[in-house]
Amino acid sequence: MKRAAFFDLDRTLLGDSSALMIMDAMNERGMISDRDQSLAEVGRRFFRVLGETRIGMEITRRSLSRMAGWSRTDLREAAARSVEKLDAAVYAEARTLIERHRSKGDLVVIATSTGRDYVEPLADRLGVDMLIATEYEEDAQGVYTGNLIGKWLWGPDKADAVRAFAEEQGIDLSESYAYSDSYYDRPLLESVGHPRVVNPDPLLRAYAVRKGWPVLGFRNREGLPKASFEPFDLIRPFAHPLLSAVNLVVEGVQLIPREGPVILAANHRSYLDPVVLAMVGSRRGRKLRFLAKKEMFEAPVVGQAMRALGQIRVDRGTGDATPLQIAIDALGRGEAIGIFPEGTIPKDGEVLSARTGVARLAVETGAPIVPVAIWDTERVWPRSDRVPKVMELMQRRPVHAKVGEPITLKDSDDYKALAASVLDRIREQLPD
Predict the structure, then answer these.
(1) pLDDT single digits (tens) 324-366
(2) Domain range holding 19?
(3) CATH number, residue 153
(4) 197 and 341 together in one domain
(5) Is pTM, for the whole model, over 0.70?
(6) pLDDT in tens, 197-249
(7) Cβ-based neighbour number of residue 308 at 10 Å
(8) What does the alpha-carbon distance between residue 72 and residue 80 come to, in Å, rounded to a whole number?
(9) Helical (H) or strand (E) element with 216
(10) SS3 content of the chain, % helix, strand, coil (to 5)
(11) Which residues are part of the catalytic machinery?
(12) Which listed site, 138, 141, 157, 345, has its alpha carbon 20 to 30 Å from 254?
């Protein structure tokens, strides 16, 4: 089956309201008065700050009847005259994502509550594959009646239209992407396997944190979008040596790239290791996203925190490739991934082999692997204990990390051997 990327329009692809941006041209054609245009500008300012609100969208829905008597030709000409202005308002990151999805063979679709006649010139300019938009009824003379053909595609009705389109086109929604800024697009975001939240309104940001959805910031910067503000940013200051409860002694942190995709791979000795690896990355200004086994997500409190911090759940033994794809997407956005190739904490005297995920990520993305050796964390939080040893923390017992030179893996089908070579590099850095 095919895969698609569905983009909301206003405040997602565009940094503004498409319909309100066309008001100047509509006023010139006598379709609206100066007073209407002034009122619309006030609404536009509120929209820029607050995004979609139920009251604002209800006003919009009721105002559709005022289109009765407008000429469809006039509206389309106003939209065509405004296409340069609309095109200039498209986020640079959105353009990059569109090209990236095209390069992967995905269908690119705009899904919006805005009327087709407003949006079609911009959709043609962007070269998207399909436009799902509200349809306005017109009479035999090409004059709008004030009624709709079908439904106004907002909220659940937009999601229904996307599902109908996917069924008709043979699109696998579980493998598809959706991008939106609005809390009221929850049904659309929940209908796909890869929801992406863009410059979200406050309600959607909170919902995305609870669901563990990636939150992207479009700021008109070249390249793929960066992750927006996340709960991790609130706790990041506590990784500073002066504030941290963990006395971390780290060597070689300058070997971690400050920017761009990178994989930090470490040995596993204790439940404290993810905290230590996150602190290592933070000292270089990197925010890590971990691949973590599902048991962590099912634990009370800890599981909710893992989702809120944007960590990636791995159901081992199921063959599900979704976690790796999420990590690949994150690396594609220039993020940092943390991974423990052993997959679990070894028992006393046990030597574990490396799982292949670290090699697959590196080969698929070309991201460098930075090997990090960790030791003495087991003295602070042994494998056999459910909580850390408080006295060890209070006495500031040091735990250690040593960062090695980055590794670039050559393309190969022998992922097992590649992963083993990464684990060997990590172990070489451990003290005798």
Answers:
(1) 888 888 898 888 999 999 988 888 767 788 999 999 999 999 9
(2) 4-227
(3) 3.40.50.1000
(4) no
(5) no
(6) 999 998 998 898 788 788 888 888 766 666 665 556 655 665 566 557 789 99
(7) 18
(8) 12
(9) strand 215-217
(10) 45, 20, 35
(11) 8, 10
(12) 345
